Amino acid sequence: MSSVTASCQRIAAMVLRHVYLLKSSWPRVLEMVYWPTVQMILWGFITLYLMQSSRTVAQAAGLFLSGVLLWDVLFRGQLNVSLGLLEEMYSRNLGHLFVSPLRPFEMVLSLFTISLIRTVIGTSGAAFLAIPIFDFSVFATLGLPLVAFFANLILFGWCMGLIISGFVMRLGLGAESLAWALIFLIQPVSGVYYPIDVLPGWLQAIAFVLPSSHVFEGMRAVLLDHVFRWDELAWAVGLNLAWLAGAGLVFLAMFRSSRRHGVLLSVGE
Questions:
Q1: Which DSSP category does 265 fall into?
Q2: Considering its fold, how many domains does the chain have in total?
Q3: How confident is the model at residue 198, as a pLDDT?
Q4: Is residue 21 part of a domain?
Q5: Is residue 6 part of a domain?
Q6: Is 220 contained in some domain?
Q7: Is residue 9 part of a domain?
Q8: pLDDT tens digit string along 68-116?
Q9: Within a 10 A sphere around the Cβ of 34, how many other Cβ atoms?
Q10: DSSP label at 199?
Q11: Which residue range(s) make up the domain with 218?
Q12: How far is the C-alpha of 64 from the C-alpha of 67, rounded, in Å?
């Protein structure tokens, strides 16, 4: 009986350890609720869209494949910026970098560059594989507008990555799940697989200020109506410039706060 009691005490101690860890790290708690909620909202709106349009069902393969490939540009653009900073934190190299002559904007530009290289490699591989597997070429289907879509999505991904990197740098590795999860918060309101008018009015207002929603609206116009929406492109470019300025300010503020509180050398949670 004593061995059973001792075993139960050890189990309780391990459980309490993880409970205390959850209590001290709100991103972990948020993540447990986050993924089921996002999936429910996303597929709910996809279902509503398909129920409303028979024409969409006939072209669903092209719409969904184009959507998922362009979404990956946004996701990879953000993730590769965040991972660039996380790799420096994992190796405890962040403090060393910023006692060198390296300036914050130089680090940001280097993160953008490596993000572009990684994103091009990753998404190009998937796009080329879609040709023999699904007999679908995003290059032929979207044509030259694909360049504008790619540029705007990766720029918005960089903005998101810069904001996330700033928070991870300030809060520590306990917030690293933001790098994987936060981008999916905007997926349901970006209209990746359905038009924005499927959303409730209050969500449409949020979608309007996201460059990604204008890109995906433009993508559907090309696929369904064979028209390139210059107005959507203009909105995407203007919003991206505003997001880039805001993301830069957030990153700089978090960097200065991290330096002031002496956490650049820390990789704790």
A1: T
A2: 1
A3: 84
A4: no
A5: no
A6: yes
A7: no
A8: 889 889 988 898 888 877 777 776 767 666 667 778 777 888 888 888 8
A9: 16
A10: S
A11: 26-260
A12: 5
